[in-house]
Amino acid sequence: MSAALTFGPTSTADEVATGFAEEIKGKNVLVTGTSLNGIGFETARVIAKYANLIIITGHNPERLRLAEEAIKADVPSANICSLTVDLGSLADVRRAAADVNARSEPLHVLIHNAAGPIGAFKLTAEGLENQMAVGHLGPFLLTKLLLPKIRSAATETYTPRVVFVAARAHRLCNGVDIDTLAKLDEAAYNSMNRAAQVKCANILTASEMARRGKGVVNAYSLHPGMIFTNVHNEEGLRPIFQAAGLVGPDGLPIANPAGDRKWKTIPQGAATTIAAAFDPRLDPFSGAYLDDCAVATETVAAHSADPVTAAKLWAATEEIIGEKLAFDF
User: In Å, what is the CA distance from 181 to each residue of 139, 279, 314?
Assistant: First the structure.
């Protein structure tokens, strides 16, 4: 890799992966949320060009099959494993983790890309609010259960990574409400606020994992960029995005939204994930938050940069999932 490599807001995942091809070679990577036409799919697709193994996950078996076929059509040499998992179900997360742990390969990179759908209030079978379960509680448990396999990928010259796809939208709330992680009344539910809280939890978890990991595992969170997807046209949500000046009356993205917000393509949106997973220059910055393929921790809202809050969230999450994520073994 050339130290002169630079990437920015218009860089694509392909460009970043090409730049770090030597770092990706030989790696085994798991990416959650890899449905077609999403940044998780694009992340998996470009990694598959160089990696030893790419494990793709999703909750819908048919969508997962289509994603695998599309990657294989583009990268015939790809070594792909498909894993169906409902991250909103702690029981199913345990089942899926057991399947991964039964494999012989170590796991070099775990990328948490999946997110629960923004929309109507929904409880999981275990009584957890769905967005928080899919976006935070399930991924936390999955990380815990896969940690021995992740740690086994470490060498004297390589530290494995856990990556959380968060968002700049974490600023759109007053921070994660730790008291409602496990239980949330429908009357108190606001879909956009809850989505923002999940992203706060992702950022706090990455920073706390880095602190506790002490170089055993590196963790990062990131903002992928503002990418137009079907969610912007969902019933009940379009008015919110219209009011924010992001989409017009026709539901299509406004070319130049106000402020510093600029739309990205899906390939551009996946670029920062690739950087977080493979850029070796990030090794000294475990716990960092990335934007446009670069460290941007200084842009994190105060409520998501507080180490005391991060520690409280970690402890509360362990209590809910019934598992302690320990690095001292």
Answer: 14, 33, 11
Q: Output the six-digit token pair for 24.
A: 């990706």
pLDDT given at position 233: 56
Give the model's confidence band at 49: pLDDT under 50 very low, under 70 low, under 90 confident, else very high.
very high
Q: CB–CB of 114/139 below 8 Å?
A: yes
Which of 98, 87, 93, 83 lies closest to 29 in space, CA to CA?
83
DSSP string, 270-307: THHHHHHHH-GGGGGGTT-EEETTEE-GGGS-GGGS-H
The two structure tokens encoding residue 59: 């909750």
| pLDDT at site 250 | 72
Mean of pLDDT values over 27-54: 96
**Token pair of 164 as six digits:** 């959380």
User: Tell me, what amino acid is at 215?
Assistant: G
Quick one: which of 73, 6, 4 has its CA closest to 36? 73
Domains of the chain: 13-321 (3.40.50.720)
pLDDT of residue 329: 37
pLDDT tens digits along 190-214: 988 999 999 999 999 999 999 998 8
Residues labelled catalytic: 189
Q: How far apart are CA 298 and CA 90, in angstroms?
A: 33
Structure-block tokens of residue 237: 């949500």
Per-residue pLDDT of 121-152, as tens digits, reads: 999 999 999 999 999 999 999 999 999 999 99
C-alpha to C-alpha distance for 229 and 189, rounded to whole angstroms: 23
Alpha helices in 214-263 (DSSP H): 238-243
Beta bridge partners of 299: none
Question: Is residue 77 within 8 Å of residue 151, measured between CB atoms?
Answer: no
SS3 235: coil
pTM for the full model? 0.93
Cα–Cα distance list, 149 to 99, 107, 161, 279, 314 (Å): 12, 6, 12, 21, 21
62: Cβ contacts below 8 Å, ≥ 6 apart? none
